[in-house]
Task: structure prediction
Amino acid sequence: MDAQEITRYGDALYAAMTGRTTIAPLTTTSPDISIDDAYLISRHFLERRLAAGERLVGKKIGVTSKAVMTMLNVHQPDFGYLTDRMMYATGAEVPASSTLIAPRAEGEIAFVLKRDLRGPGVTNADVIRATEFVMPCFEIVDSRITDWKIKIADTIADNASCGVVVMGDRAVRPTDVDLSTCGIVVTLNGEIISTGAGAAALGSPVNCVTWLANTLGARGIALEAGEVILSGSLVPLQPVKPGDNMHLALGGIGQCAVRFT
Result:
């Protein structure tokens, strides 16, 4: 795929996001699109956001749990970028009806870094040493691809289908909790809809951050001190609509709540 096509697709995804519209799957209109092409499109999409005044504050890994892989029919992890305009605090009202297209919520563990991680060669021990604290969070994924008809290249190009992030109520040192066995309970409008554990994300959320550091490192990109790193969903995705209230409790870490308007 040449540079002109990459720019065109990145611009189309940016226009879809700002206009709350969707585009046809890139894998349909350009069947020869590669993973590398998709990441270049994602980067151009990000550059459009930064040029409009947004600020890069972190990165995310997506498609880490079997439940999400099965739901989306995507069978390998990917990554995307977080900006300041995507971030909310627990208890916030997220204006889904005016800012999102087809939102789905997932419960995760967020890592906040105190030092850079630059792969290749990053280990799980490096990740723990570089992490200042972990927090519970909701990632509200969204798709600028019509009807979520995505393959891996579609979601990569679309910033790993990221919408917004809601950060939880506590910050805990990563050495103070077992990140593999900690349990999560998610409720929707007061009823439990899913449960899970840290191991749902590639065996451990730490594995996910290690994968991300090394994958980005191979592309000359670091995880940087101060950044928020989303480590992947621990539960199935939940479609949400205006009026819905969601809450999660993450054992040993904390809670997070969000209302959609």
